[in-house]
Write a structure and sequence with these properties.
single chain, 488 residues, Rossmann fold, 2 domains, alpha/beta
């Protein structure tokens, strides 16, 4: 495992991802659910059985009318920051001390200005077409009726449609951490004439794509290049970028100097253990920037393949669909349930649950992915309680590159429509989520609610919350049914 930059702590001479995950989850639960904390600490097969403990974090958070989730979030973040380390020229230091290290080569800003006219109406790419106006409104209402998105999400996008002037975000500086991410808002915000501050790895192929998007947009793109670099418009992609794992002090210094109100958007992703490292680096950077720029807003995308507490009307929708299956499912389901000894096609919820617990974890994604995504939700929860503007919306299942390269996940997504799940294309997802970000930034914040309600607001879960069946109990069948589609 890499041993430079932001790293896992050493335990008995090695840097263990499982030890880190167990410890952070246990610390998060300790005050609210001591029994759950002890169970996490005793877990001997973390890579396989992490699901139970991450679910328990959500269940315990419902205590005290849901306010226990705030204590869990603060404790989890404190544990993560206390355990993770950073290495540099002076050796290994606690994570949050990394910003005290000197910056040898500061970043300078390169700026690219687009040449197009800004779009002044929200349109959404879908199945090779671009929907706007009443056609988009009808599509939103269809998704609502089929249980693909929550009513609050539909209402939010309708509100953006009614206020097209909101799309112009040029009064803000949207920092897109993970500028090349398929799910990020970079392309949409630039098309609307916004100003984007882009950070991603120094990879010429990635930056060539990002710069092409910026040049053909109506917006302005600011990006880091190492100080003293000589570059031209033709070779900027060769010099652009910053490595968050290894250049945190320099990135923080550069972003502190950006003029205007910052919206710090976290869209980073990496495979395996690196996902925890880079997500932790972003969280440390977030803390540092908010300390210096307290008017900053934060933006996140939550994955739908996680555990959430969901409103009672989602449970009721799911229960009704279970009781009234299609004719084909009515014929097949009893046999499937019998042959699998009840393991397949289980109910999604106990009838009448309010809130219900939706567990859409996909085990193959692993405990590192679960921790990386959970710490983003924890930061959103604590930031709201600290008075910051926060946009966190559940994004739909999407055929991103990271999904389709996993054959099992690709097959599951190809067969998911058989169970009322809609899987989106990246262009549809990232535009829809950018519209929800605009809504969150342009509307007055609602009075603070229990954190689970804040997370549920604006969710576009693709139907996972309202499907009749526990998602994992249908996953294997979806894989089998989707094999041909995935190959295609």
């Amino acid at each position: 495992m890499a041993s430079s930059g932001v790293v896992f702590p050493e335990v008995d001479g090695r840097r263990s991802t499982s030890a880190l995950g167990r410890g952070v989850v246990a610390d998060a639960l300790r005050e609210v659910d001591p029994v759950g904390a002890a169970a996490a600490e005793r877990e001997t097969n973390w890579r396989q059985d992490y699901l139970t403990h991450f679910r328990r974090l959500v269940e315990a958070g419902l205590l005290r009318d849901g306010e226990a989730a705030v204590d869990i979030a603060r404790a989890g973040l404190d544990s993560l920051h206390g355990r993770m380390r950073a290495t540099g020229p002076g050796g290994e230091v606690p994570l949050d001390a990394v910003f005290e290290q000197p910056v040898d080569v500061p970043f300078e800003t390169a700026t690219v200005r687009g040449t197009q006219r800004p779009a002044r109406e929200l349109t959404l790419p879908l199945h090779g077409r671009r929907l706007g106006g009443d056609e988009l409104r009808r599509q939103l209402d269809d998704w609502l009726w089929r249980g693909i998105m929550e009513p609050s999400a539909t209402e939010a996008v309708h509100e953006v449609l009614a206020n097209p002037d909101w799309l112009d975000l040029s009064d803000l500086r949207l920092v897109v951490l993970g500028a090349g991410a398929e799910m990020g808002p970079l392309r949409s915000v630039l098309s609307w004439g916004g100003e984007v501050v882009a950070v991603d790895l120094p990879r010429p192929d990635l930056w060539r794509r990002v710069l092409d998007v910026a040049g053909d947009s109506a917006g302005t793109l600011h990006l880091p290049v190492p100080g003293g670099t000589v570059w031209s418009g033709g070779d900027l992609h060769e010099h652009a970028g910053a490595d968050l794992l290894h250049s945190l002090p320099a990135v923080a210094q550069w972003l502190r100097g950006v003029e205007g109100r910052l919206v710090l958007g976290n869209y980073v992703y990496a495979d395996g253990a690196t996902n925890v490292r880079v997500s932790t680096a972003v969280d440390a950077l977030t803390q540092e920037l908010v300390r210096h720029r307290p008017d900053s807003a934060l933006a996140f995308l939550a994955t739908p393949t996680d555990v959430f507490a969901v409103p009672g009307d989602a449970v009721e929708h799911s229960t009704r669909a279970y009781r009234e299956p299609s004719r084909g499912m009515r014929l097949v389901r009893p046999a499937v349930r019998a042959v699998s000894a009840g393991r397949l096609l289980r109910r999604n919820y106990a009838p009448g649950s309010d809130p219900g617990i939706n567990d859409s974890f996909i085990p193959q994604q692993g405990p590192n992915y679960a921790l990386a995504k959970r710490l983003q939700r924890w930061r959103a929860t604590t930031a709201r309680r600290d008075g910051l503007t926060v946009s966190l919306n559940v994004a739909p299942p999407t055929r991103t590159r990271s999904v389709v390269k996993n054959r099992a996940l690709a097959s599951a997504y190809a067969g998911a429509h058989r169970f009322g799940i809609e899987v989106f294309e990246p262009a549809t997802s990232n535009t829809l989520m950018a519209a929800l970000l605009v809504h969150d930034l342009r509307t007055a914040p609602t009075p603070l609610q229990a954190p689970w309600r804040e997370e549920a607001r604006g969710a576009v879960h693709g139907g996972l919350w309202r499907t009749p069946y526990d998602p994992r109990s249908a996953l294997g069948l979806a894989v089998v049914l989707g094999l041909g589609g995935a190959r295609g």
